[in-house]
Each structure stands twice: as C-alpha cells, then as structure tokens.
C-alpha cells in the first residue's frame, strides 16, 4: 500500500506487475470507524452544506442540495449503516458518489487518505453478524493498526436512494 502522493503510478513501485492488481481508494472516518470507497465511484468531495429536508423520505436521507443545477440526495451514511449518529457540523464532508446512474451525497466525519493498494490486501469479510452487514462490506484491510472496511455502494444503495430498504 502506498499513499497516492508517494507514487503516482503503482507500476513504478512494483515493476513487472499487472497494474490491474492495484486500486485507488479513498478512506474516511464514520462514527470513529474507518471505511473506504473505490476512487472510481467518487465524483467530488465537498464541504458540508445543510440540505433541504424531504418529507416522507427514509430516516437516513438528510434531504436534498442543489449541486450546480442538479438535485442531489444527501445520505447520513452512519445512519444507513446502523452506526451511531450525531448532528452534522461544518467539519463534516460530503462525498459525492455515482451509484448506477444516480449521484448521491454521503455525509462522513472526514476524509483520511487516498491510498493505492494491492487488490489482495483486502481480506474477505468474516461471516459474523448479519448478512446485511456482510453485504455492505466487500473486504477488510489492516493499515497501521486500523481496520478499513471497503464499502460496496451498490449493496448499500440497491435501488434508487429514496426506495432503498
């Protein structure tokens, strides 16, 4: 694993290896835990913007914001994953992701790192807890004493944001 700033091209660190064995991830904090998303799903990272509430939406949907003319649902990712929730502050961050054909804003506590990792550094999610919890997490990686969970956004948001269970 390398920080993106350490090497712009994974092949320069591991000559002769297949670059498809590497992936870039963005790690972030959520309820004092570490998660990550594949960088290819991320459209932008922006500061906190208070959303306009949407009546009768699921409890994890904080509301909507206008993003350069597009209406974007803002999801409290802590609440969606069943973690401890708190009121958002100006220090929170919105990670704008593309899930299927829909842009969704994810409220997180803060972005930690952009990492280039080998595909095989992720271990399978242990079969403990519920199937739902296992379904949301594609794999787990240990980094400097932290356990970083790779989220599967298509499982976290299986249908249109407003219809997700």
Q: How would you describe this protein?
A:
The chain is mainly beta and 165 residues long. It has a single domain, classed as OB fold (Dihydrolipoamide Acetyltransferase, E2P). 11% of the residues lie in helices and 44% in strands. It is built from four helices and eleven strands. The protein has helices spanning 10-13, 77-80, 131-136, 153-156, and strands spanning 2-3, 22-30, 33-38, 42-47, 61-67, 70-76, 93-99, 102-108, 110-118, 137-143, 146-151. Strands 1-9-2-3-11-10 form a six-stranded mixed sheet. A hairpin with a 2-residue loop joins strand 2 (22-30) and strand 3.
Which features would summarize this protein structure in a list?
mainly beta; 165 residues; OB fold (Dihydrolipoamide Acetyltransferase, E2P); single chain; disordered C terminus; 11 strands; six-stranded mixed sheet
């Amino acid at each position: 694993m390398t920080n993106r700033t350490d090497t712009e091209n994974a092949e320069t660190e591991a000559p002769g290896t297949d670059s498809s064995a590497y992936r870039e991830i963005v790690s972030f904090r959520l309820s004092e835990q570490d998660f990550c998303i594949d960088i290819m799903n991320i459209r932008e990272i922006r500061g906190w913007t208070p959303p306009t509430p949407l009546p009768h939406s699921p409890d994890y949907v904080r509301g909507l914001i206008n993003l350069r003319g597009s209406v974007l649902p803002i999801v409290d990712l802590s609440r969606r994953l069943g973690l401890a929730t708190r009121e958002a502050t100006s220090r929170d961050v919105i990670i704008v992701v593309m899930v299927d054909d829909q842009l969704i804003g994810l409220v997180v506590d803060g972005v930690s790192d952009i990492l280039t990792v080998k595909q095989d550094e992720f271990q399978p999610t242990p079969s403990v807890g519920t199937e739902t919890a296992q379904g949301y997490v594609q794999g787990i990686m240990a980094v400097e004493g932290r356990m970083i969970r790779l989220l599967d956004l298509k499982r976290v948001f299986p249908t249109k944001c407003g219809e997700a269970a």
